[in-house]
Design a protein that fits this description.
With 188 residues, the protein is α/β, with parallel strands linked by helices. The chain is 52% helix and 16% strand.
Length: 188
Amino acid sequence: MRCLIVEDQQILLDLLGTIVNSFTEVTQVFKAASLKEAESLLQQRTMDLAILDLLLPDGDGSQLGESLIHHNPEIQLIILSGSADGFLCTGNLRKSIRGVIDKRHSFDALRECLQDILQPAYQTLTPRQQDVFRLIGEGKSTKEIANLLNSAISTVESHRKAIAQKLNISGAELVREASLTRQILRQP
């Protein structure tokens, strides 16, 4: 998933980028401090998610939202504003907006909104694949997993291949991804 963050305050832009990058479902994060920068990025690529500041030095973030929806009707938007209470949503934006967050609130509000939007990829696995994925994250070998699940080694290897394919990662990346997911799920 590609995410565009448009925010004119550089420190906030960098912090937002760090938060969004912490989600493994986000493959690329693009940052822009103005409408002009954002529009330049949009000429080169399509975005799946955008976090938009409403008040930018060179225009209105709502107009950018309209343009994003025009290029990708499936895009999901999060509106970020110092005056979110006064935000009036137009009809075209309404169906794409997944959250309106006031800048005065903590970053936890943004993280919660992102968690609602980004279904973790591991949740698309079958229950048995999730078992194998969890055990991979615990550092178990294919043989150990087969013993724990009373399965053949070849069956576990087939699950590993299917998991890597579903998550769009290589077999070598599978162990890293499973370990990271395990760490994320253990956080309070």
